[in-house]
Protein 1
Amino acid sequence: MSTLVQISVVPSKIEDTSYILELALEKAKLRSGSISDWRIRKRSIDARRDPVKLNLQIEIWGKEERREQIPVFVPTNVSEAKEITIIGSGPAGLYAALRAVEAGFKPILFERGKDVRTRRRDLAAIHKEHIVNPESNYCFGEGGAGTYSDGKLYTRSKKRGNVLKALEWFVHFGASEDILVDAHPHIGTNKLPKIISSMREAIIEAGGEVHFESKLTNLKLENGTMNAIEINGHQWHSCTDLILATGHSARDIFYLLHEHNIKIEAKPFAIGVRVEHQQELIDFIQYHGDCDNEYLPPASYALVEQVGDKGVYSFCMCPGGIIAPCATAEEEVVTNGWSPSKRNNPFANSGIVVSVEPKDLPNFNEDDPFVCLDFQKQVERSCWEAAGKTQRVPAQRMIDFVEGKKSIDFPKTSYQPGISSVDLNEVLPKQITKRLKKAFVSFGKKMKGYYTNEAVLHAPESRTSSPISIPRNPESLEHIDVKGLYPCGEGAGYAGGIISAAIDGINCVDAISKKHSNPLETSRNETV
Ligand SMILES: Cc1cc2nc3c(=O)[nH]c(=O)nc-3n(C[C@H](O)[C@H](O)[C@H](O)COP(=O)(O)OP(=O)(O)OC[C@H]3O[C@@H](n4cnc5c(N)ncnc54)[C@H](O)[C@@H]3O)c2cc1C
């Protein structure tokens, strides 16, 4: 058994391994000659007090102890194995395919978008030419919304074993080992595409299939059981186990399920704006003025405020980041954010969003599963119209917004397609604006300097989570009415980020495995 100790160091000591070891040995009451190995197991920043400290958890192995090396990904040769069909190559679909390969199933993965490399051109077209390809954009394509995301890998999931497995697979396919140590792991948009393509290569190498530009367009059931799927409007494939991991932006999938009378439900979600400050200001606030400390990473923040009966909270904060145009169709605008691994842009952006429940909406009808989706669409379209019917977004300085004044000019922002000065009070629904205003003032009290007219609001932040859920049996993970259909990941309402989506992908394969009495342990016989 190894020994665990907690120590704190000032940031400038983080690279001084002898100092760290000395402190840890002192704390553990051990001598250096009595140990065989050690490592930093967890690292977090404690910025609550001045000076800022780094909390480290150190793991030490004694002379007789061995550091365990467990293989993290053990593929089987699945070229002739029973098939599992997966729709969507986001984190949920990709991890499902990898797990299938481990469990002895042959994954057949269909993805409507393009491979990571080709997809990049379509992203450039959104930024520069305002052209949104409805099949290839920030949400659709290899790796899903996760590929050109920020790659922050924290989750509220409490099942540490599952989280660790999801993180270890990222490391196995090329991410830095730091993500296993940092309390708030982050990969960065520049690193993700290579990791995603390594995952794809491993699936293919093991005998699985990955098909791009292959969109699920129809399905066939027989006696309430999955029977076949149609790809691209003409190719039918028989399929008895279908993992549907199409993400929160595949609206056509929700309509398709509804047409087939497959139950879907309106789900609470959140809408707001993406706020951008100068990173320097956020560092100054969070690090008590110590903003030039080269050992501290660009600072982040997490804010929450209850305004009346609704929560207003920060979402997907990106230190040193960029605001991205994330629409998936023409005639709408959507913002989100990402950052490179070094987080070295001069901007700090975050969604600030207000919770929305189906019953809050003017057209609420409990039999209508589309009430939240319709509201989301309406907000995205109003913003598109208000900013000039391109991929420019409506924008306003923070205090101007609270005071209801259109902004005369703007500081430079990171949103490349451009911004248009609009009074967001006239574009966004009042139930959102009135709460955002109160929250901004209150956030300014919690973080002195946050409430400033140098901050620019970009609208809308509207794809925080799925506005629809696809109900499934909590044990079998199959749809409540359709055998063999496994709603999975964020689009179905079972995940809220990369790691939780990835874990849900694994869980769906494990559920299929259980159904076919194929315990994972016995399928690990033939390694590739
Ligand atoms: C810019 C940006 C930044 C983000 N930053 C972070 C972050 O830092 N940390 C974090 O945890 N999360 C982040 N997210 C959210 C995260 O990416 C998602 O939570 C996650 O990707 C959801 O995984 P998923 O597999 O459920 O769905 P998705 O990633 O949405 O994948 C769904 C896939 O299904 C495909 N698909 C859809 N319909 C069909 C069809 N009919 N046929 C075939 N394929 C189809 C899509 O093309 C897509 O590839 C970010 C998202 C964006 C857009």
Protein 2
Amino acid sequence: MTQKTWTAVDDYISGMLLQPDTALDAAVEASDAAGLPDIAVAPNQGKLLWLLARMQGAKRILEIGTLGGYSTIWLARALPPDGELVTLEYDPKHSEVARENLARAGLADVVEVKTGAALDLLPTLNGPFDFFFVDANKDGYPDYFRWALKLSRPGSVMVFDNVVRGGRVIDAKSTDALVQGVRRLNEAIAAEPRVSATAIQTVGVKGHDGFLIALVTGC
Ligand SMILES: C[S@@+](CC[C@H](N)C(=O)[O-])C[C@H]1O[C@@H](n2cnc3c(N)ncnc32)[C@H](O)[C@@H]1O
């Protein structure tokens, strides 16, 4: 199996199971036009986030790593009418593009984009959040996990993206800070009795990677 096949299968899945979506297409186009990197979740992954948030009945969602707001749109659409989503983004340009994309999607009143380093913004937030999507700098994942736990309640769900990194996650001696960030996330979760988690490898248009999904089972 090759990247070409993985991409074709993703295209097939999205073509079969996702509806055409002008707001999401416009967000991708505007993000490309503004020169943002092509590192948003894939359409079928966005739908997975929407499904998970819907299945959990999330009313308050915290996202770390906004980019142009593509995953943010998927997640915000999973909220009930009185729901809210806070998303944290380090880069002011990314934040600005995201705000425009969210406004175009009719979600400006539902989503607050906060600009700054997540570790500076997290202490200013009030929990609990029902659902977390963590998709920023991977070397920060262990700290983001500790903050998410602090801002959670029993029953909260956490999703961390890019936890397989083309298989490099199994290299204990890796000098890649991003790989080591994911490894330390796994160690922190494994040592935390209040959380139960697993990770699933994925292949697709985004290559070989994976999601970690965690449930807060206690306080
Ligand atoms: C992979 S992208 C997010 C993609 C987005 N979740 C999506 O799927 O549409 C990661 C984002 O995290 C941001 N980021 C990196 N370091 C950060 C930090 N310390 N605090 C907050 N955001 C950060 C980057 O600027 C980038 O926009």
